[in-house]
């Protein structure tokens, strides 16, 4: 039995759709269908019911899913053990990053990794939280940082620091926002991040909590762009605490304190890879970097 067939089975079961599983595994839908058909023939049972709403596990599929996941984890452990026996922590690691380097303590992390594991090549790939999660799931990334809660059980999370967020408005709008309530704030022009960005979900949840919808004018996916557009008088946006306070001090923005909220900066990797030497090494170093630096 081929491991790739089990990986396809688990991915389709988790996603419930061939389309999403195809994107996750970076394979065509016909290829996934062929994997599933071949596995069903090999096992002698149907694993899925094909419905207009997607792929639904059969009774046999539900019973076999846990064993398939265990088999994948066991295969990963076997490879990890083999590498550790060869004493090899080497090769290329691709790390997903978000926001600015100092906020992630990335310099300290990279220095410690390269000093401890000189045969390791580290590559950084800048993105937003949603693309980092996707990259880890489809194995384009080995690990990465996100802002916000990770709700995917297939991904392991190391919480690093709680981050405050503020609603920032152009400095010239001070009189408009100082005494504004949620409906009035929502009615002003807003700069919103894309759905895959953690700020998007956080902002959306805040508005839903107060039963209002933002007057979205522009979408931008980089924090420096958000701050620049606020400073230019385009509209309001959610900014990380250090960016918000710096913009306020520079006279670029006024902060609407009723919109203050909190999220979590985390380091993620695929749970089934947690025993691989490279993943173990990164987890140990990231914990050391953040524990030794304290919470500031």
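^ Assign residues to that structure.
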């Amino acid at each position: 039995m081929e491991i790739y067939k089990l990986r396809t089975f688990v991915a389709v079961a988790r996603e419930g759709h061939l389309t999403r599983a195809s994107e996750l595994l970076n394979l065509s839908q016909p290829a996934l269908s062929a994997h599933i058909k071949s596995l069903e023939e090999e096992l002698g049972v149907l694993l899925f019911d094909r419905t207009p709403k997607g792929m639904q596990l059969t009774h046999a599929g539900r019973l076999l899913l846990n064993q398939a996941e265990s088999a994948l984890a066991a295969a990963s452990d076997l490879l990890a053990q083999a590498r550790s026996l060869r004493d090899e922590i080497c090769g290329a690691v691709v790390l997903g990053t978000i926001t600015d380097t100092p906020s992630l303590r990335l310099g300290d992390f990279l220095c410690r990794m390269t000093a401890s594991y000189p045969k390791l090549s580290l590559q950084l790939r800048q993105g937003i939280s949603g693309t980092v999660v996707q990259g880890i799931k489809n194995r384009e990334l080995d690990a990465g940082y996100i802002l916000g809660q990770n709700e995917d059980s297939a991904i392991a999370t190391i919480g690093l620091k709680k981050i405050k967020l503020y609603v920032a408005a152009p400095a010239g709008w001070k009189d408009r926002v100082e005494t504004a309530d949620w409906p009035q704030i929502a009615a002003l022009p807003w700069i919103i991040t894309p759905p895959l960005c953690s700020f998007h979900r956080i902002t959306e949840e805040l508005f839903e909590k107060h039963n209002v919808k933002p007057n979205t004018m522009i979408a931008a996916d980089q924090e420096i762009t958000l701050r620049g557009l606020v400073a230019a008088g385009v509209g309001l946006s959610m900014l990380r605490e250090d960016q918000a306070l710096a913009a306020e001090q520079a006279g670029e923005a006024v902060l609407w304190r009723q919109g203050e909220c909190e999220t979590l900066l985390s380091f993620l990797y695929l749970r089934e890879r947690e025993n691989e030497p490279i993943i173990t090494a990164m987890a140990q170093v990231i914990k050391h970097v953040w524990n030794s630096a304290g919470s500031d």
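The longest helix spans residues 59-85.
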